[in-house]
TrEMBL record:
<dbReference type="Pfam" id="PF08327">
    <property type="entry name" value="AHSA1"/>
</dbReference>
<dbReference type="InterPro" id="IPR013538">
    <property type="entry name" value="ASHA1/2-like_C"/>
</dbReference>
<dbReference type="InterPro" id="IPR023393">
    <property type="entry name" value="START-like_dom_sf"/>
</dbReference>
<feature type="domain" description="Activator of Hsp90 ATPase homologue 1/2-like C-terminal">
    <location>
        <begin position="28"/>
        <end position="158"/>
    </location>
</feature>
<protein>
    <submittedName>
        <fullName>SRPBCC domain-containing protein</fullName>
    </submittedName>
</protein>
<comment type="similarity">
    <text>Belongs to the AHA1 family.</text>
</comment>
Length: 161
């Protein structure tokens, strides 16, 4: 797996504190990567608890859970809504924290592009408030998590398929 920026999104601009961008190459065809992003029995191998409630249906809602992080006002609960998708090309989700202490209302969009025999996977996680110190911290933590733990876990899931 390469973590080098691709030709489309480039490196994450340091001055844009509202978004996390990840560009990851996987040596697997788009159909396989799409399955890992959209089939609940595969999602449970690399995403948060509760993802087994996912359905590829616009408007569908489900809840994921993780460890609360008081330094970011994260309650440990993420309410998710499927906003849009184009099979084997794009999946867009709304993520929000139901806690009144957390103003998180983010959009997480996965985009897939065939590259040779593999797939260039782009993640855009947007909606961070640069004026909220807790969201600035959340962006930093989540950016590192997406780039390391999540992409590595997704890669392992793809290898097991």
């Amino acid at each position: 797996m390469s973590t080098e920026p691709g030709p489309h999104l480039g490196p994450e601009p340091d001055d844009d504190l509202t978004v996390v961008r990840v560009d990851q190459y996987f040596p697997h065809p788009p159909a396989k990567v799409w399955r890992a992003l959209t089939e609940s029995d595969l999602l449970v191998q690399w995403q948060m608890q509760g993802v087994e409630g996912f359905r590829l249906e616009v408007g569908h809602r489900y809840t994921m859970t993780s460890v609360p992080r008081p330094n970011t006002n994260f309650s440990g609960t993420i309410e998710v809504e499927v906003l849009a998708y184009r099979a084997e090309r794009m999946l867009s989700l709304r993520w929000s924290d139901p806690s009144p202490l957390n103003s998180a209302n983010w959009t997480v969009t996965w985009s897939l592009e065939q590259e040779g025999r593999g797939t260039r996977l782009f993640l855009v996680h947007e909606g961070f408030d640069p004026d909220d110190p807790a969201q600035v911290m959340a962006r930093k933590i989540m950016g590192e998590g997406w780039r390391t733990h999540v992409m590595r876990s997704l890669g392992h899931a793809l290898e097991r398929m």
